[in-house]
Amino acid sequence: xxxxxxxxxxxxxxxxxxxxxxxxxxxxxxxxxxxxxxxxxxxxxxxxxxxxxxxxxxxxxxxxxxxxxxxxxxxxxxxxxxxxxxxxxxxxxxxxxxxxxxxxxxxxxxxxxxxxxxxxxxxxxxxxxxxxxxxxxxxxxxxxxxxxxxxxxxxxxxxxxxxxxxxxxxxxxxxxxxxxxxxxxxxxxxxxxxxxxxxxxxxxxxxxxxxxxxxxxxxxxxxxxxxxxxxxxxxxxxxxxxxxxxxxxxxxxxxxxxxxxxxxxxxxxxxxxx
Length: 274
Ligand SMILES: Cc1ncc(C[n+]2csc(CCOP(=O)(O)OP(=O)(O)O)c2C)c(N)n1
Ligand SMILES: [Mg+2]
Description:
By secondary structure, this protein is α/β, with parallel strands linked by helices.
């Protein structure tokens, strides 16, 4: 598990480094999924960085596509493309646009950014694989604000009806969306009970505990239902000054003040774990 913790720290470091150097980006929601990505790309998913389209791979759809930087960091660390390329984020001609694009980036399996659509596509991918009798798994990461979209609930309804035991949805439940706290805007209520009532196999975990996330995925894999993992997370996790505060969704320019100290602290944590 230490390796996964290190991987998550590296994802946070690369993410903060590229976004602060670029001077704009979705910091909060990228930092909250670092641990889940570390478990997926550090242990659970089958993939080949030298052959991103390998037909035996598992698929990940980052339905909250604005958090591409965290996923790019995981992919670069695992060798899908050179790590230096991360610094081209969102620049003209880059293969790394702010939101994920399957036609540009090695390792990205679905173009996302319009909230709600990604998980809908992931459902179709899981259904297609199931119909063909293939063993690949499909993972999707959605946001809590995103879960206000109708398409999310169509997916929640259809996946159990189609018996998609090859489909695992992870909800990055960081309790914040673009413009405030989700409970103040349109609460999801008891989302675990809702998912269960729709027919999913549900696990409720600390979304920053890599061992718990790993265990949750194992349990979902064993279940004969689609899996729903509620990741209880903190938006901005890893940069203490930005954790769970309003205004941490996307930062620009001066809002990055203090990032060097945050990066130094993360690098120190990483060194202590080597
Ligand atoms: C359909 C759609 N409406 C609005 C937006 C603009 N938008 C981008 S991120 C975001 C907030 C999403 O909140 P959440 O899903 O909780 O993401 P996180 O907290 O993980 O950043 C919004 C409204 C969008 N990308 N797509
Ligand atoms: Mg959120």
